[in-house]
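Researcher: Sequence of LacI family transcriptional regulator follows. Predict its structure.
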Amino acid sequence: MGRTDELEASRGTGRGATLEDVARVAGVSRATVSRVVRGDVQVRRDKVVKVESAVQELGYVPNNAARSLASRQSGAVALIVPEHETRVFTDPFFSTAISGVSAGLGAGDKQLLLVLSSPGGDARTRRFVHGGHADGLLVMSHHEGDLSDGILEEAGVPVVFIGRPPEGLGAGSVDLDNVEGGRLAARHLIERSRRRIAMICGPQDMPAAVDRRTGFEKELADAGLEPAWLSFGDFTLASGEREATALLASGARFDALFASSDLMALGALKKLEVQGLRVPEDVAVIGFDDIASAADEAISLTSVINPGRQMAERASQMLLDLIAGRETDQQIVLRPELAVRSTT
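Model: Prediction complete. Tokens:
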């Protein structure tokens, strides 16, 4: 059925156009039409234009009773984390961020739901998101391809990312300038007269990991240097041990190591110690995140501060503002800082 036929079919019934009619003519979901009609500013502009055009052509008039029903709230917000539960419950960054979300929700009446969406779990997440269980969604630690096929765009509720959101989604976000974080780490090592600097990168399907590597390589290039060695972990302690073992076995000459997370840095430190290398005399080491154990006297790890609690708190406050229809900044980027300790 063509567009003209769709218009005639909707008009020929003698009834007023419905939300479903508008969705069909516009080629979008019912939830997207509902969001446009409510004035949701997070809907992509191209979809807004399609819906507004269909509304005008069909003469659609929103049903106030239906809108009242649709505006009923669940009393909860959901934090969606596309990670295996083993990582969520072993990486200190997540507990810090969840604490920040709870603080951001404050003494209000919204309950927090934690949704772990492991790889391949999009179908279950879609059912949850589209089931009306939450008035807004927070997303943290997403990978490329997670929550795809319009799961979030068609949710019908505000969405805020803790981190850099996918291009074109139109969601709110609170992020750290991870490119500058990578630059900061490289700059500090260069200022310590290190010239053969290796890096254990994070997963390259994650925006934060890509940005940290980008900043690191740019700062080295500005100084006329190239990475002494690059490898890729998954932000875990075990991957730091594994990649440090590979680095030591490679024969590459290096006098500094930047790991894209503190856990990977801690794993690398263990292997450097076993090898008999002195830190920082032989090898300077920097991590990223500044987890609590980085400041332990026995470790004293130099680290780029990743303010997970602050980011999560501000993201949850932004989400509450969007749910309430209040004006708010929708893209916030925080500047990183460096905690200098004994490993450099």
